What we know:
Strand content: under 5%
Oligomer: single chain
Shape: globular
Amino acid sequence: MHVAVLLTAEPERAAPAARRLLSGALARTFADWRRLRGDDPYAATRAELCAAFARSAWRHHARLRPGAEAGVLARLSPQERLVIVLRVYEGVAEEQAAALLGIPADRVRAVCHRAMTALRAAAAAGGGDEGVAGGAGAGAPGPAPTGRAA
């Protein structure tokens, strides 16, 4: 559910589009369950979720209303959100993300770089402390740093 919320950039407590995306992806995964025998069901559901989001991305372009609550990912285009969620939050390899999205790996790299630059700029401008990805350090979405030495 969290991945769907990140993709749609809706507030988590009221996320009808995210719920629709997730239920559709789970239904399609369940329908193909016998065909998926040895495969990872999480990866199959993630692929279905990303495909459904990509097919309907024009519906999920954030339309920020005055006073509306939105996270930092709402500032990104749907393709940028999809790449950031796959690469940063889900930890999918660049080549695997490219295959999943049907675009070249160079394009995934460029979109990821552009989106990360926009997120860092938003964090530097003071807009990176609210929303779904707030508090992740250096403007990067995802879980908080673990405190390991770099």
